[in-house]
Design a protein that fits this description.
Layout: H1 2-28, H2 34-91, H3 94-104, H4 108-135, H5 137-144, H6 148-173, H7 177-200, H8 207-227, H9 239-273, H10 276-287, H11 290-309, H12 314-347, H13 355-379, H14 383-411, H15 413-434
């Protein structure tokens, strides 16, 4: 019996390995080599880590929704959404730049210069942005329709999240994928455990989940910082690299706005036009669709983006990816529908299951993944590619905001997700028209 099980596991492993090899040959038009086998190993690490992270994150959100209820859960989501907007100028796309430029060439002094420059740049940006936010706090409270307490929590979250992103991006850039794959689920487990401590101590409020996240990001970022300290030397700070990183980062920053806008502006406008509990319900659907597809894309991007950055022939990669898109669509929609139905049941009776919303969110999640992977392939081309992604994401952001303002008051949550779906269609159209290679 045991020998049969071992045989089955070995066969399953080789089947998975063969499938990965097939995908690689389609994407890169190359046979597998020792380097490719290492890529498969990294993908397995990231996949395992992402699965644990997803389970922990899923439990955290479900428990937050069940214990807090739609109203308090909505406040937590609102703080998180505001924090995600405030974090963008603090990181300014430098996180993407550090991955691209450190992975292009394995040279310790060069990597040290890039890493040191990146970390100092993000630190300076975080301090400057925090001062600006506090100076204009009254205006920000009016824009986001939140209290001073909620804004302060959003600023704190933005600072800590920026620190977390720049440290995890460093691990990707220096190809420490295994460590990255271990620390990502560790972070999500700390979030879950911290929240459960609030539950057991009966001190639960809408602040509890955001505090749990801040604690986890701070601990994880600190662990990474200690592990990469040999790369951090003040004498390696380079103004030329700072200029390059910021220039590249501005385009990446505008590209990052797409994801932040399309997953957060909706919640802020829902809070403006509908009720705070509708923010919580909308997020429940997002967690079980867009978030899951984001993790799927993240697995591929984490491992393949540094590799694609060093790959000279991008045309073949785009052509291969185009052939994989139909599979993403055909498999993605039914899988997303199933995950949403299961998730909404777990959230409890206070969170209404609407099959129309399930279908709309499933379609939008697939459109997001389709665009997201395209965007990262273009980003690997340098400033020219990042500029192309920027055009697409600006289109997405503008279309989404305009349609949200028009559709949410008239069609509620349906209008919000329809706006997001149309905006991603517009973004895909733009990058296909302007793409550098005709595939």
């Amino acid at each position: 019996m045991i020998s049969e099980y071992v045989k089955f596991k070995k066969e399953s492993f080789f089947i998975s390995k063969n499938k990965l090899a097939t995908v690689y040959r389609k994407l890169f038009a190359q046979k597998t080599s020792a380097e490719v086998k290492n890529i498969f190993k990294n993908i397995s690490y990231v996949t395992a880590g992402t699965v644990i992270e997803a389970i922990s994150w899923f439990l955290f959100n479900v428990l937050s929704g069940r214990y807090l209820g739609p109203d308090e859960y909505g406040k937590f989501i609102l703080i998180h959404s505001v924090g995600m907007f405030l974090y963008l100028p603090m990181i300014l796309g430098v996180g993407t730049g550090i991955i691209k430029y450190t992975s292009e060439k394995i040279d310790f002094n060069r990597q040290s210069s890039i890493i040191t420059t990146s970390h100092i740049t993000v630190l300076i940006l975080s301090v400057l942005c925090s001062c600006i936010y506090l100076k204009f706090s009254t205006a920000l409270m009016k824009i986001f329709l939140i209290s001073q307490n909620l804004l302060n929590l959003g600023i704190i979250f933005a600072i800590i999240y920026s620190f977390y992103i720049i440290t995890t991006s460093t691990l990707q850039g220096i190809f420490q994928i295994r460590k990255y794959a271990i620390l990502k689920p560790v972070c999500s487990l700390i979030i879950l455990i911290s929240f459960l401590i609030f539950v057991l101590s009966e001190t639960l409020s809408f602040e509890s989940p955001i505090i749990s996240m801040c604690v986890a990001y701070l601990i994880t970022g600190s662990i990474i910082l200690l592990s990469i300290q040999k790369y951090l030397r003040s004498q390696f700070f380079d103004f030329q690299w700072a200029k390059t990183l910021v220039k590249y980062g501005i385009f990446s920053f505008l590209s990052a706005v797409s994801y932040i806008v399309c997953t957060n502006i909706d919640k802020i406008l829902i809070n403006r036009y509908l009720m705070i509990e509708d923010v919580g319900l909308f997020n429940a659907y997002c967690i079980s669709s867009l978030k899951i597809m984001s993790m799927f894309s993240g697995i591929l991007v984490t491992v393949l983006f540094p590799l694609i950055s060093g790959h000279e022939e991008k045309r073949s990669i785009l052509k291969r990816y185009k052939s994989l898109v139909p599979y993403i669509i055909l498999l993605g929609i039914p899988i997303m529908a199933i995950t949403q139905i299961i998730t909404l049941k777990l959230y409890g009776d206070n969170f209404e299951l609407n099959l129309r919303l399930v279908l709309l969110f499933s379609m939008t999640a697939v459109l997001f993944s389709w665009y997201d992977i395209y965007g990262w392939i273009f980003n690997s081309m340098g400033i020219k590619g990042a500029k192309l992604t920027m055009y697409g994401t600006i289109t997405i952001a503008v279309v989404d905001i305009i349609l949200d303002i028009y559709l949410i008051p008239r069609f509620g949550l349906d209008g919000s997700i329809i706006a997001t779906a149309i905006s991603y269609c517009a973004g895909l159209t733009v990058i296909h028209i302007k793409r550098p290679y005709r595939t």
